[in-house]
Amino acid sequence: MEFVGVGIDQHFRERFAPHMSPEVGERLRLTGDLPHDQVLEELQFSDILVVPSRKESLPNTLLEGFDLGLPAVCTDVGGISELLRDGVNGYLCANEDADCLAEKNARACRKPRDEVQYGPCGTQHHSHAADSGCQRT
């Protein structure tokens, strides 16, 4: 397993190195800012999308992840909850709730993608998701 931080600079690693286990440090790759086509490439090789933003409007990355059928774990900030319903087409956590993010990341990793159709459910407006066959996970 590899953790990829897109848009996160290397100074993050130095700042938080004392708090990271060696195992996480070995598996963490920070890319810094990437052109959009490279972000899409990273998403294509991903198994899960995590958007732990403290402040956000409506991230394009979430829509692009839905298009690829990625399970998403996001904080409930900005317009994210307008598209993502907790347990239906992804997982929501309160802002800055690290315990929730850890638990929902683990849940998303355990749930095979073919068992839940994140993409089709994720691209439908949340008020219609329950009526369209999207089931709570």
- The span between the termini is 23 Å
Q: Architecture of the largest domain in CATH?
A: 3-Layer(aba) Sandwich
Radius of gyration: 15 Å
Sequence of strands across the biggest β-sheet: 3-4-5
Give the averaged pLDDT, no decimals.
Answer: 84
| Corresponding CATH superfamily of the largest domain | Glycogen Phosphorylase B
CATH class of the largest domain: Alpha Beta
* Approximate strand percentage: 5-15%
As a percent range, the share of helical residues equals: 40-55%
Specify the number of helices: 8
Summarize the structure.
The protein is α/β, with parallel strands linked by helices and 137 residues long.
Primary descriptors:
two-stranded parallel sheet, alpha/beta, 5 strands, Rossmann fold, 2 domains, 137 residues, globular, 8 helices, three-stranded parallel sheet
Task: Please characterize this protein's 3D structure.
This protein has 137 residues and is of the alpha/beta class. It has 8 helices and 5 strands. α4 (60-67) links the parallel β3 (49-51) and β4. The longest helix has 13 residues, at 98-110. The radius of gyration is 15 Å and the shape is globular.
